[in-house]
């Protein structure tokens, strides 16, 4: 029988309300962690890495994946300090490899990380989910951020829907929407002010998707030779949501983007994080097909589901429900594992996490990062491991 996917859980470090002891009870064996207190562009020292690794191992778990070593903005914009930031990035990779940590996730989303408009969207059973509502994002862009170009980007129908939506919001709700969209990096509670965000947008003037792609290729060509020597497996996380927002380009959203990326610096060290929740928010992404065609580059897998709506909105659904056919995705992943095994590759137990989960049951007692409840994620993980076993026993 072919090895199972490695079951992992994201942990935000000692300040996370979800303890390692709790994570161990979910059945996960691997931890996905980052040193969130170190700023992008700075080196993760061997001491800091070791300190965190010791905490994880003392709980009987393994630090399997780093998510993320974040990319400094100067690398994305090709701004001053880029080469210094790249040098530091490589040093961080060396320090991680020395501790035996080899899988490194990152993303190339300008300024923002993932974006939602509602962090407490209630489903029929009162579970709380994350939601991206197109008209809310448009309302923010047009009338709160007041980005002039937005008026040319949206149809008059979209503008009308956005205005009507905005008119229903109270002052407090406008503030909440603003803070939700302006959230900073995962693992922080930072929120950009409108002025700060406008300052960032300015730095992206003239940075088209093609320019951003060239900057990503520059970064990869600079780091991948070292990563390969170190045995580090880089795996980029796709854009969430997988389309341009707020005037910022996004370039890791489609199968063609993923193909460009792996071809920009061909190497076993230049790989992908396959996130079904992110890629699945686009109707033109064929997820099982992506596994079939690009699965050999996967070093890390995020499995979650979204329910897509006609206007580009979506919410995070139960892991086996929603628009993505999780059975077909899991089956394709298992066939990829088989291919690896048949060809003598040893990386069969690809680390997988349930990514996000709903807030259910006791989750309301914790103050967790949005999407990172313990019980909701455990439910997702439990469903996924059952699905994996069922398919493996049936087809292999
Ligand atoms: C999540 C993110 O958006 C997602 O799907 O997995 O928290 C993700 O971890 C970061 O945006 C990028 O690594
Ligand atoms: Mn993800």
TrEMBL record:
Enzyme category, top tier: lyase
Summary of the function given for this chain in its UniProt record: Catalyzes the dehydration of D-mannonate.
Organism: Mucilaginibacter auburnensis
EC number: 4.2.1.8
Cofactors named for this entry: Fe(2+); Mn(2+)
Family membership noted in the UniProt record: Belongs to the mannonate dehydratase family.
Residue ranges of the TM segments: none
Keyword entries, A-Z: Iron, Lyase, Manganese
Official protein name in the record: Mannonate dehydratase
Pathway: Carbohydrate metabolism; pentose and glucuronate interconversion
Source organism superkingdom: Bacteria
Keyword Ion transport recorded: no
Xref: SUPFAM superfamilies: Xylose isomerase-like
Name of encoding gene: uxuA
A single GO BP: D-glucuronate catabolic process
One of the record's GO molecular function terms: mannonate dehydratase activity
Recorded catalytic activity of this chain's protein: D-mannonate = 2-dehydro-3-deoxy-D-gluconate + H2O
């Amino acid at each position: 029988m072919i090895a199972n996917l490695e079951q992992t859980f994201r942990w935000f470090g000692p300040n996370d309300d979800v303890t390692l002891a709790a994570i161990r009870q979910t059945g996960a064996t691997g931890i996905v962690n980052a040193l969130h207190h170190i700023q992008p562009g700075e080196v993760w020292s061997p001491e800091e890495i070791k300190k965190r690794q010791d905490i994880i191992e003392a709980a009987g778990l393994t630090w399997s994946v780093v998510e993320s070593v974040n990319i400094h903005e100067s690398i994305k914009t090709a701004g001053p300090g880029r080469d210094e930031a790249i040098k530091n990035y490589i040093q961080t990779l060396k320090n991680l490899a020395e501790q035996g940590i080899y899988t490194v996730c990152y993303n190339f989303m300008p300024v923002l990380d993932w974006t939602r408009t509602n962090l407490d969207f209630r489903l029929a059973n009162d579970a709380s989910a994350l939601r991206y509502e197109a008209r809310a994002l448009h309302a923010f862009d047009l009338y709160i951020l007041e980005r002039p170009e937005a008026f040319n980007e949206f149809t008059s129908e979209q503008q009308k829907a956005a205005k009507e939506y905005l008119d229903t919001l109270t002052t407090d709700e406008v503030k909440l929407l603003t803070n939700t969209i302006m959230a900073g990096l995962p693992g922080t509670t930072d929120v950009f002010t409108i002025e700060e965000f406008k300052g960032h947008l300015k730095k992206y003037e003239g940075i088209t998707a093609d320019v951003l792609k060239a900057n990503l290729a520059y970064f990869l060509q600079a780091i991948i030779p070292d990563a390969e020597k170190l045995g580090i497996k880089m795996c980029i996380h796709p854009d969430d949501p997988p389309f341009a927002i707020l005037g910022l380009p996004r370039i890791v959203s489609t199968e063609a983007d993923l193909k460009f990326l792996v071809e920009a610096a061909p190497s076993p060290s230049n790989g992908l994080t396959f996130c079904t929740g992110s890629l699945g928010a686009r109707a033109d992404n064929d997820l099982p097909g992506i596994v079939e065609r690009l699965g050999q580059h996967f070093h890390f897998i995020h499995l979650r589901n979204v329910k897509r709506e006609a206007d580009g909105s979506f919410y995070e659904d139960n892991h086996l429900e929603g628009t993505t056919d999780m059975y077909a995705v899991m089956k394709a992943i298992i066939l990829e594992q088989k291919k690896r095994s048949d060809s003598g590759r040893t990386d069969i137990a690809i680390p997988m996490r349930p990514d996000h989960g709903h807030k259910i049951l006791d989750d309301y007692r914790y103050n967790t990062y949005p999407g990172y409840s313990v019980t909701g994620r455990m439910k997702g993980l439990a469903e996924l491991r059952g699905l994996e076993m069922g398919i493996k026993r049936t087809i292999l």
